[in-house]
Write a structure and sequence with these properties.
Blueprint lengths: L5 E5 L3 H12 L3 E5 L8 H9 L3 E3 L3 H5 L4 E4 L8 H8 L3 E4 H8 L3 E6 L4 H12 L6 E5 L5 H4 L8 E5 L2 H4 L9 E4 L7 H4 L2 H9 L10 E5 L15 E6 L7 E5 L2 E6 L2 E7 L8 H17 L3 H10 L8 E6 L2 E5 L6 H9 L6 E5 L9 H10 E6 L4 H10 L5 E3 L3 H11 L5 E4 L12 H15 L1
Parallel strand pairs: 1-2, 1-4, 2-3, 4-5, 6-8, 6-9, 7-8, 9-10, 10-11, 11-12, 16-20, 17-18, 17-20, 18-19
Antiparallel strand pairs: 12-13, 13-14, 15-16
Length: about 450
Amino acid sequence: MSAIQNVMVFGAGISGKGAAAELAEQGKTVFLYDDTPKVLEPGLSDLLASHGGGFVSGNIEEVLAKVQQVVLSPAVPGSLPVLQEARARGVEVIAEVELAWRNYPGHMVAITGTNGKTTTTTLVGEMLKTLPVKTAVGGNIGLALSREVKGLGKDSWVAAEVSSYQMEGIKDFCPDVAVVLNLTPDHMERHKTMEEYGRCKRNVFINQTAKQVTVLNYDDPEVRTWGKYSKGTLCYFSRNAVLPEGVYMKDGSFFVKWKNKTIEICHKSELQIFGAHNEENVLAAIACGFFAGVTPDDMRKTLLDFKGVEHRIEFVATVNGVPYYNDSKATNTDSVIKALEAFPSGHIVLLAGGHDKMTPLEPMMNLIREKADMLILLGEARERFYQAAVSAGVENVVMADGFEAAVETAYKNARPPQVVLLSPACSSYDMFNNFEERGRYFKKLVHELE
């Protein structure tokens, strides 16, 4: 790779800017390209200019003619015809996480799956902090991975959340511990088929050997079969089966059984997070901590202290005896199903809708019919969601004229023992820049109700 001097970073978001800064600091000439004209922060602009690069928009072919490598932000599909042409001319096209991997000499846990990535990665990051080495968390969470690993030595550990988008463009990426949490339909507008979506997810462990560990969800019927694709040491986790070896639950407690040794970590009643999906996240995190060398005592302490992540079934406030929960991170139907299942007694006033990802709605609506006393629909998706709800026999469905109106409708109708849950099953781009902005706005509105 020493011949690479001129690089185009495609996409000027968090990942793209981080990768561009990292490459420029290595002395490369970096052209940060975006389809939309942008004004860069002066520090980054000056850094790129000092090595003959800078921000460019418009004539992408002209930029591609000058470079030996393209680094892709997650939002940019590697299948674009212009990138195919560049590859044919010998230009290397890689994901930003691949760049991070090549620049990092230490150890890594990489976590992927349709749902639960952020909670599991955050939890693993907290466990890694108990090790006597430098640690970091990055990838699809926080800053660009190529920035988070900067300056870390060969003894360090990094917890990386990686998406299917990021795994599309890897070549040598090979974490010490690779985790696949689950697989349900998502991002079909990009991957087109479940087969291709699954292939991208499997890239997280595809380069592993027996020296590395592949952690798979035994309870997911598809992911369970993926051991055949891995050359890594296999470790399964399960909340339903007591495994002969692996990480599992028995009588509500979490256990690690490995090489004829069984260790109990804690009981689910001791945790501050709840729901079956979180039990799976905890099992996966325990597997990661175990193989990274975190002691059982430190894993236990971390789990008992962990309050969950923002925007994932996050308790906001109780208003007039009714608890309000922010689950803005539920951007697909499977996330919503997991959120609904986290409230065993039901009586949910559910706010859903947003920018429609066009995933099938029937399984989610069938559960809404059982669990929700009221369904309040908003955003671009509300018409399609309404038709699906009526078809599934959901009875109390209301269409809201905007986000504020949806929260107001919930406030006027919800009574104990009901709970109000924002769990959209959609991305946020019709009304907000991202799910974080949507979640914070929901919390602001709820606190105003108080």
